[in-house]
Amino acid sequence: MLLASVLILFSCQFKPVYKSENINFKLCSIKVDNEKNPATLYEVIFKNELKSILCTTKISKTNYFLKWTITKNYRELIRSTSNSTRRYEETLLIKFAIFDSKNNTSVYSDMVTAQGAYNVLEDELISTIASKKSVELEIATIAARLTLDKIHLFMLKNENSEL
């Protein structure tokens, strides 16, 4: 079954979209802005993850700048009747825009949201720190990947445009 699927994909000249040289070159020409000082860990993780997945090779020519901001929100989802267990949701809202480096005009802007939840148990200190840090790291990574997906879909839709 797997072999048949692979043969069908290759017979119709299937090529993974991330291997498109034109799009790959454009992705590599995007420079991600640094985080603001002082930065939180999730901002640093988001920036580093986005930089690493945008381009795996080093290209010195920068045609675009990606500017971004992150807003972090919490909300309580569930509280037990004894108040010993609670569940919280953490949300990162990333607003980003890509600017042309020649004339500083906006080429594309959008936003992504990444969410995660964690429990606060009776042993609040240990359980909360571990759960909260884990969720924070994961949703920052997911947000970077969602940002790349949005940029990539925009490029595919507008392959012959300026970006």
Helix-strand string: HHEHEEEH
Name the CATH superfamily classification. Answer: Lipoprotein like domain
CATH topology: Double Stranded RNA Binding Domain
Number of helices: 4
What would the principal axes of the Cα set say about the shape? elongated
Q: From the helix content, strand content and strand pairing, which structural class follows?
A: alpha+beta
- Spatial order of the strands forming the largest sheet: 1-2-3-4
> Helix fraction?
40-55%
Mean of residue pLDDT values:
81
Number of domains: 1
For the record, what CATH class applies?
Alpha Beta
Count of β-strands: 4
- From the coordinates shown, what is the CATH architecture? 2-Layer Sandwich
**Main sheet characteristics:** 4 strands, mixed
Strand content: 25-35%
Terminal Cα span: 39 Å
Contiguous uncertain segments of 5+ residues: none
Q: What is the C-alpha radius of gyration, as a whole number of Å? A: 20 Å
Gist?
The protein has 163 residues and is an alpha+beta fold. The chain has helices spanning 2-11, 21-28, 41-54, 124-157; strands at 30-32, 64-79, 86-100, 106-120.
